[in-house]
Amino acid sequence: MSPADPTPQVVTPAVPGSFPWSVLHDRHPKLVAGVRDAHPYGPDQRRALDALVAESLTGVIARLPADAHDAARWETWGTGHYGRRWFDVPFLFAESYFYRRILDAVGYFAPGPWQGVDPYAYLKSAEARTSSPSTGSLRELLVAAVWGNRADLSFRIGQHGGPADEGSLVVDDSAALCAALEAGLGRELCLVADNAGGELLADLALVDHLLATGLSERVAVHVKPYPYFVSDALATDVAECVSVLDPATRDRLLAAAAEGRWTLRTHDFYRAPLSYHHAPEDLRAEWSAATLTVFKGDLNYRRLVGDAHWPALTPFADVVEYFPGPVAALRTLKCEVVVGLAAGTLAALDASGEEWRVTGAHGLLQTAGLDSRPGSSPAPG
Ligand SMILES: O=P(O)(O)OC[C@H]1O[C@](O)(CO)[C@@H](O)[C@@H]1O
Question: Which residues form the signal peptide (predicted)?
Answer without folding.
Answer: none
